[in-house]
Write a structure and sequence with these properties.
It is built from 4 helices and 12 strands; from the N terminus they run H-E-E-E-E-E-E-E-H-H-E-E-E-H-E-E. By secondary structure, it is α/β, with parallel strands linked by helices. The strands form 3 sheets. Strands 3-2-1-4-8-12-11 form a 7-stranded mixed β-sheet, covered by helices on one side. The longest helix has 9 residues. It is globular.
């Protein structure tokens, strides 16, 4: 985030992170090399999450955000997902041939296919955000097959496909990081492919 936000948006933007979790994407700090000397963070973040375990400012459902219209400049959305393996039931989702590889975790612990999940969120994000939206989607490939989660996001948020949405996808930034839990410090560390979909209502506005 400390590289993406200053590059695509003005310093000091007001951000709402609707899937805060343990704030891992905000580490080590809300500063970059252009602002650390001034002591001012590159953005002002409101943290929101549906889990009581999260240290968020707002505890609630991101499909019903308790904020006024156009109250933030940018929304960050990093939805949790589960992978269904070997035809086994995982978190209440049955696997098997012909079924989807991934499901997203909705409010209340229900697992929802991505095309339905994004359509539950787009209205609120359009209402609350003045201009920007960043969606993080990790690991979109499974057994060399592309999982069309990015397409599902576009169908809901991109006004090219959803005429009622005000967002246009500006760019997809692909980042290949390392998963610490599987030995990131070793020579054969497992790598994770993350996609950051950046949407704006006004492409010219930062």
């Amino acid at each position: 985030m400390r590289k993406l936000i200053p590059y695509y948006f003005d310093s000091g933007v007001k951000v709402l992170d609707v899937t805060t979790g343990y704030k891992k994407m905000w580490e080590p700090a809300l500063f970059d090399r252009n602002t650390i000397d001034t002591g001012k963070p590159y953005c002002d973040v409101i943290f929101m999450d549906g889990s009581k375990q999260s240290d968020a400012h707002i505890l609630g459902d991101h499909r019903k955000i308790p904020l006024a219209d156009n109250s933030v400049d940018l929304i960050i959305f990093d939805p949790a997902f589960t992978e269904v393996k070997n035809a086994q039931e995982n978190y209440g989702v049955k696997g098997g041939k012909g079924r989807r590889h991934f499901y997203f975790r909705g409010i209340g612990g229900k697992w929802i296919p991505p095309e339905a999940y994004f359509f539950q969120c787009w209205r609120e994000f359009n209402r609350v955000s003045r201009n920007g939206l960043i969606i993080k989607i990790a690991e979109r490939f499974k057994d060399l097959e592309e999982i069309p989660v990015i397409t599902y996001a576009d169908l809901a948020f991109n006004k090219r496909f959803n005429k009622k949405s005000a967002f246009t996808r500006v760019v997809n930034v692909v980042y290949r990081g390392k998963r610490k839990a599987t030995g990131a410090r070793t020579a054969n560390a497992q790598r994770v492919l993350s996609n950051y979909l950046i949407y704006k209502k006004d492409r010219r506005q930062r």
